[in-house]
Amino acid sequence: MAQHLQDTTTLQNGVKMPWLGLGVFKVADGEELVLSVKQAIAHGYRSIDTAAAYQNERGVGQAIAEAMKDNGLNREDLFITSKVWNADLGYDATLAAYEASLEKLGLEYLDLYLIHWPVEGKYKESWRALETLYTAGRVKAIGVSNFQIHHLEDVMKDAVIKPMVNQVELHPYLSQQPLRTFSKEQGIQIEAWSPLMQGQLLEQPVLKEIAAAYGKSVAQVILRWDMQHGIITIPKSTKEQRIIENAALFDFQLSDEDMSRIDGLNRDERVGPDPDNFDF
């Protein structure tokens, strides 16, 4: 179990990935973004998750460059993720999209590159492109995002390399238990986006009661629940105080009983699109 913000889990190919990272979904490119990424790195975060679709890779890249200089870090000290957008799926388009992301980020390589959504009829060609990038040593790890069990099975039918990570919407109202069980059997690391259900769970009565018992915030309880279940998580925040709070997860442990109570909150309720029914 992680004891520290920089503790990592080992992906199936031996690459180490931090349990906790900073997400930058819906953070507009600009000063606020640059500042929040720099603050996160200054406070010990080493994993930053962006995507071509967020249109903020340039700002993330600027923040990374400045933070490395300010904190005396090397590129190897950081774990940077981006994702190929739906419009760029297909073999050649994915290879080009990877180069475009690197150029915007100002980086030589990514630690993790994901297919953002399972667009029918397109994601397998993109997976082939990710395998090409990985085999050529251009990216440290490859994976997918928003893939259900049947999407993973479909990819793995023809894949030479299994996805190393599957980043999905996951929180106490959408605990994704069947997907988690399947992924564990396959050695695919689950990563949660929207772990706090975009703030909708912060007033949840059971979570508030548990949080009060530990003298922690609801957000900290949810993120700790993720961690104790072996789920990587990337809470998004632009507020320094919240960035610090989200990382203060290592001085308490949820009891088995409280873990079960949180597990029992599942409603299979999404705040984001359904991966089996989206049109973008």
Describe the overall structure.
The structure is a single chain. The chain is α/β, with parallel strands linked by helices and 280 residues long. Helices cover 40% and strands 15% of the residues. It has ten helices and ten strands. Strands 3-4-5-6-7-8-9-10 form an eight-stranded parallel β-sheet. Strands 1-2 form a two-stranded antiparallel sheet. A hairpin with a 5-residue loop joins strand 1 and strand 2.
Summarize it.
Keywords: NADP, Oxidoreductase. By secondary structure, the chain is an alpha/beta fold. The chain contains ten helices and ten strands.
**Total E-strand runs:** 10
CATH architecture: Alpha-Beta Barrel
Tell me the count of domains.
Answer: 1
Largest sheet properties: 8 strands, parallel
Number of helices: 10
Instruction: Give the mean pLDDT.
Output: 97
Instruction: Let me know the CATH homologous superfamily.
Output: NADP-dependent oxidoreductase domain
Give the DSSP E fraction (strand runs of 2 or more residues): 15-25%
* Helix amount: 25-40%
Highest CATH level, the class = Alpha Beta
- Quaternary structure classification: single chain
How far apart, in Å, are the first and last alpha carbons? 38 Å
Within the CATH hierarchy, at the fold level, what is the topology? Answer: TIM Barrel
Order of helices and strands: EEEHEHEHEHEHEHEHHEHH
Give the strand order of the largest sheet, numbering strands 1, 2, ... along the chain. Answer: 3-4-5-6-7-8-9-10
Structural class: alpha/beta
Shape descriptor reads globular
Radius of gyration over all CA atoms, rounded? 18 Å
Regions with pLDDT < 50 over 5+ consecutive residues?
A: none
